[in-house]
């Protein structure tokens, strides 16, 4: 794999790095990167020649994620992601209490 610029400042190829993507580790020819669907996306042609895109964070186009480099596998979640999880759990807890379904510790009906 090469991420060396092709003279225009763009990599010639990229690799899918999202661990749960079905094509994880697969390499594709880089076409472009631009904002689409409200996020920065990498555009490429798949094996069938179809024009496709992925969120840039799912690829190695932008280089190593500083968080991943510093955490060296010790931290599985960013603070922002944990705060989003807390907010989602609060919403679910509020919904379940409205429906009369207590959510709490195992065997408990407390909220």
Instruction: Return the average pLDDT rounded to an integer.
Output: 80
Q: Give me the count of strands.
A: 4
Indicate the proportion of strand residues: 15-25%
In total, the number of domains comes to 2
| Gyration radius, rounded | 20 Å
Order of helices and strands: EEEEHH
Looking at the structure, the CATH topology of the largest domain is: SH3 type barrels
Q: State the oligomer.
A: single chain
Kindly provide the name of the CATH class of the largest domain: Mainly Beta
User: Distance between termini?
Assistant: 52 Å
Share in helix: 10-25%
Structural class: alpha+beta
Profile the largest sheet: 4 strands, antiparallel
- Silhouette: elongated
Given the structure, what is the number of helices? 2
**pLDDT below 50 for ≥5 consecutive residues: which ranges?**
1-9
CATH architecture annotation of the largest domain? Roll
- Spatial ordering of strands, largest sheet: 1-2-3-4
